[in-house]
């Protein structure tokens, strides 16, 4: 991910590890920008149906994720892990349809009695990839990524 000090790209949104809220980062009054998928993934995965959906007729621009409901007030189980995989896959399917990515795959693992981890592999059309990790621990979330520089898959 390259963070930029200009208005090119997308606004960088990061998850605050203390409050689990999504925040935009500013420097000298200007939002930090990114050319990566991080903001796109966060908005897609956590974007529940809301009033903003009335502002567009394009279904790819609507917030439709069911992932927040999958984990809301739930306990760690195989069902929650599998429902999370399906919800994340559905929320990111448009990336392949719109040719933003050539492939998006999601896997999940129960990390412990209080934690589930989901791995999201996004392969760009040029074959480069990034791996994202979404961890749900004791009801809190962390979201991170690492780039993979191999071609032909993430």
Write up what this structure looks like:
- By secondary structure, this protein is α+β, with helices and mostly antiparallel strands.
- 22% of the residues lie in helices and 34% in strands.
- It has one domain (3-148).
- The protein has helices spanning 38-46, 67-71, 78-97; strands at 3-4, 10-11, 13-15, 22-24, 26-27, 30-31, 33-34, 103-112, 115-123, 129-137, 140-148.
- The strands form four sheets. Strands 8-9-10-11 form a four-stranded antiparallel beta sheet, with helices on one face.
- The mean pLDDT is 78.
Record the SSE blueprint.
Elements: E1 3-4, E2 10-11, E3 13-15, E4 22-24, E5 26-27, E6 30-31, E7 33-34, H1 38-46, H2 67-71, H3 78-97, E8 103-112, E9 115-123, E10 129-137, E11 140-148
Antiparallel strand pairs: 1-7, 2-7, 3-4, 5-6, 8-9, 9-10, 10-11
Salient structural properties:
154 residues; alpha+beta; three-stranded antiparallel β-sheet; 3 helices; 22% helix
Summarize the structure.
This protein has 154 residues and is of the alpha+beta class. It has helices at residues 38-46, 67-71, 78-97, and strands spanning 3-4, 10-11, 13-15, 22-24, 26-27, 30-31, 33-34, 103-112, 115-123, 129-137, 140-148.
Q: What is the structural class?
A: alpha+beta
Any idea how many domains? 1
Number of helices: 3
Seen as an oligomer or otherwise, the chain set is single chain
Helix content: 10-25%
Strand ordering within the main sheet: 8-9-10-11
Output the helix-strand order. Answer: EEEEEEEHHHEEEE
Radius of gyration, in Å, reads 16 Å
Question: How much beta, percentage-wise?
Answer: 25-35%
Mean of the pLDDT scores? 78
Largest beta-sheet details: 4 strands, antiparallel
Sum up the overall morphology in one term: globular
What distance separates the N and C termini? Answer: 15 Å
Spans where pLDDT lies below 50 across 5 or more residues: none
β-strand number: 11
């Amino acid at each position: 991910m390259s963070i930029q000090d200009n208005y090119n790209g997308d606004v960088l949104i990061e998850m605050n590890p203390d409050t689990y809220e999504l925040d935009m980062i500013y420097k000298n009054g200007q939002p930090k920008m990114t050319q990566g998928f991080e903001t796109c993934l966060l908005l897609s995965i956590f974007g529940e149906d809301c009033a903003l959906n009335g502002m567009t007729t394009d279904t790819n621009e609507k917030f439709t994720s069911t992932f927040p409901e999958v984990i809301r007030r739930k306990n760690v189980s195989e069902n929650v892990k599998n429902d999370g995989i399906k919800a994340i896959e559905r929320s990111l399917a448009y990336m392949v349809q719109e040719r933003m990515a050539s492939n998006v795959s999601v896997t999940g693992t129960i990390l412990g009695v209080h934690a589930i981890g989901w791995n999201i592999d996004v392969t760009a059309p040029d074959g480069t990839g990034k791996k994202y990790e979404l961890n749900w621990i004791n009801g809190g979330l962390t979201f991170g990524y690492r780039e993979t520089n191999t071609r032909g898959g993430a």
